[in-house]
Amino acid sequence: MFSAHRVALSIVVIGMPVFSQTAKFNSISPSAEELKAYADISNEMWAKMGKPSAPLYPTLSKMAGFSGPVEVLLEVDPSGKVTKANSLKSTAYHPSLAPTAISWSSTLKFPPTESTEPIARKFRIFVVFSKPERVEIRPSLDTQFN
Question: pTM score, two decimals?
Answer without folding.
Answer: 0.76
